[in-house]
Amino acid sequence: MTQNALAIVVLAAGQGTRMKSRLPKVLHPIAGRTLVGHVLATAAQLDADTVEVVVRHERDQVVAALASTHPEAVIVDQDEIPGTGRAVQVALDALPAGFDGDVLVLSGDVPLLEADTLRALIDGHRAAAAAATVLSAIVDDPNGYGRIIRDAAGDVARIVEQKDADDAEKATREINAGVYVFRAGLLRAELAKVTTDNAQREMYLTTVIGLLRAHDEKVAVEIAADTAATFGINDRIQLAEAARTLNDRIVRRWQREGVTIQDPATTWIDDDVTLAPDVTVLPNTHILRASTVATGATIGPDTTLVSTEVGEDAEVRRSEATLAVIGARATVGPFSYLRAGTTLGADGKIGAYVETKNAQIGDGSKVPHLSYVGDATVGRGVNLGASTITANYDDVNKHRTEIGDEVHTGSHTVLVAPVRLGAGAKTGAGAVVRKDVPAGALAMSVAPQRNIEGWVEKNRAGTAAADAAARADSAE
Ligand code: UD1
Ligand code: MG
Description:
Blueprint: E1 6-11, E2 29-30, E3 33-34, H1 35-43, E4 50-55, H2 59-69, E5 74-77, H3 84-93, E6 102-107, H4 115-127, E7 132-138, E8 147-150, E9 156-160, H5 167-170, E10 174-183, H6 184-191, H7 207-214, E11 219-223, H8 236-256, E12 260-261, E13 267-269, E14 274-275, E15 280-281, E16 285-288, E17 292-293, E18 298-299, E19 303-306, E20 309-310, E21 315-316, E22 320-322, E23 325-326, E24 331-332, E25 337-338, E26 343-344, E27 349-352, E28 355-361, E29 366-369, E30 372-378, E31 383-384, E32 389-391, E33 401-403, E34 408-409, E35 414-416, E36 419-421, E37 426-427, E38 432-433, E39 442-443, H9 455-459, H10 464-475
Parallel strand pairs: 1-4, 1-6, 4-5, 7-11, 12-15, 13-16, 14-17, 15-18, 16-19, 17-20, 18-21, 19-22, 20-23, 21-24, 22-25, 23-26, 24-27, 25-28, 26-28, 27-29, 28-30, 30-33, 31-34, 32-35, 33-36, 35-38, 37-39
Antiparallel strand pairs: 2-3, 6-10, 7-10, 8-9
The protein binds uridine-diphosphate-N-acetylglucosamine (UD1) and magnesium ion.
């Protein structure tokens, strides 16, 4: 192992008591990723020899979440001894024997740090040949953080935790961001001396800083330029603040790439989203998970897209779509709901109050008003009349509806699946279609209309309706 080998240790074993949650703190999501997922995504940019994640609280849940997003991470189990110091100690024990490189310690609950900040921290640490380098921040409200206590020469003397600090120490506004680089050998030696003799009865990693200084080792401090990025999340208030900070960062990133975002305050965009130049995002819009939006498209207002692909120059207004594909120049909304497996072809239309699910709707086809289209294949150039419904569920099983090219259905058609409409077929208004319709046929299922003349005057004599009818009769 060379001197410059790098191991990254991500601390994720704590309970996160202050979250008051069933979910382990590090699995709470912001911008579509878990807190620890953000930390690991950043760690992945640093070319480390190994990345370890220390787990204990709700261990199986955390490990299962990591297995799907970061299978390369090495899981290390912390034992019953609590504290960040113990967490790092078990992580060191799990490194290859004799590892004497640098150890970057990251907190699973500090999700906003960027790779450049960490690279600078590591480079500074190596250039200064320090035993340890601490990332600090100067904050307005240091509550809840460990404080950096400096000596007369201005060097860091030790770190004191909030719960162990006296009033003077508490007034210090320079806080420990919970991110450090250590020389592995010195860290191992000093951790062996750390006890749980403190307010929280935990082995603090922060104790190592004072011990190193007491042994005349060099400890450097790097003050973070971007204070907000050092934000640690311990409760729901901080969770919301971090989500806002990260969202602002994502919104600005897309604005710089040529996306118009009319109201950043009400626009939420997940980290995995891709937007093309000249996309317009209108207020109250959520673009989530792995959604992609092509150039010229307009999303919003009041729209949610989840893992949805939107084509060039398409428009989605006041609607929700999940795992859907919306073709180029297609229009959706207002007030429609595209569920998983919906694909709408180029130049297609899903209008107002329409729900679709597992439906492939062809190029140029329209579902303009008040429809349900589920488990269906719809060809090209189709028009489904207002309130056309695919009755896909027979109370036991789901069945498919197949609609050929250029089919037009009358208003209020019910297509009772399984059923097939051949190309160019039509249905009359109110048709209940239970049998396949051949290509080019007109399907009618409603009984011929019968008018009973004089019914109102005979049966509703004296009502306003009867009077109006009598007037109409005499006027004729
Ligand atoms: C810690 C620091 C504090 C710093 C703050 C920055 C210590 C003692 N204190 O405090 O100086 O200002 O972070 O955000 O380190 N964890 C484990 N095992 C444990 C306990 C915690 O892996 O036994 C993990 C947690 O899951 C979390 C991280 O370590 O990801 C920090 O733990 P937390 O309890 O949040 O420490 P803080 O009180 O925030
Ligand atoms: Mg914390």
